[in-house]
Amino acid sequence: MTEIDDADVSDLILRHAAVKGALLPLLHDIQHRLGYIPQAAVARIAEGLNLSIADVHGVVTFYADFTLERPARRRIQLCMAEACQARGVADTCAKLEAASGLKIGETRADLSLSLEPIYCLGLCATGPAALVDGAPQARLNGQRLDALIGEVVR
Ligand code: FES
Predict the structure, then answer these.
(1) Which residue in 11, 45, 108, 147 is deepest, having the highest Cβ count within 10 Å?
(2) What are the φ and ψ backbone dihedral angles of 62, each rounded to 5 degrees?
(3) What pLDDT does residue 3 have?
(4) CA quadruple 109, 110, 115, 118: dihedral positive or negative?
(5) Ligand 1 midpoint to CA 58 (Å)
(6) Other Cβ atoms within 10 Å of 16 Cβ, number
(7) CA distance 33 to 92
(8) Are 75 and 137 in contact (CB under 8 A)?
(9) What is the pLDDT of residue 4?
(10) pLDDT at position 6, please?
């Protein structure tokens, strides 16, 4: 956890500490602010909210909205669900993997890019679909895929 992250976490704990049922709102605020829940923050959150470390860790690891890992600066979350499979996501995935040097589910060591699986974005009729830095993208094949690779992957 960086000093900036540490200060942000302390500030957010103070804002939420007096509120009943503060754990989920606090975790959402930290996740939104930092992009992850720093492992080092779990004990401080527990202390600040008078909870056990196990309680906080259990909530952080239960919900998919929270992650304990610092995210990459650029993220491609590629839909690997059935409709996108039927619309050719395997080819899209193979091209992204080849261009990025990553396998699906991996992050570059320098945190410049991650290629992550995700399951159904509600864009099934326009797949292959993905979230690119949180923004939905559809029809990721042909020129759209080439543009994505040129902009984000290289
Ligand atoms: S299956 Fe990919 S968006 Fe629904």
Answers:
(1) 45
(2) -75, -45
(3) 65
(4) positive
(5) 29
(6) 20
(7) 31
(8) no
(9) 61
(10) 76
Answer CATH for 74-153 from 1.10.760.10, 3.90.950.10, 3.40.30.10, 3.40.309.10: 3.40.30.10
136 token code pair: 């939905």
**Structure token digits, residue 111:** 């945190």
Total-model pTM: 0.79
Domain segments of the chain as ranges:
3-62, 74-153
Q: Measured from the CB, is residue 49 less than 6 Å from ligand 1? A: no
Strands 113-118 and 106-107: antiparallel
* Average pLDDT for runs of 10 along the chain of length 154: 74 90 95 91 94 96 91 95 97 97 96 95 96 96 94 86
In the reported structure, the alpha carbon of residue 10 is separated from the centroid of ligand 1 by a whole-number distance in angstroms of 38
Which contacts of 52-58 are long-range, i.e. CB under 8 A and separated by 24 or more positions?
Answer: 55/23, 56/23
Return the pLDDT at 66.
Answer: 94
Q: Is 118 in the pocket of ligand 1 (CB under 6 A)?
A: no
pLDDT at 95: 97
One-letter amino acid for residue 128 of the chain: P
Ramachandran region of residue 50, left (φ > 0), alpha (ψ -120 to 50) or beta? Answer: left
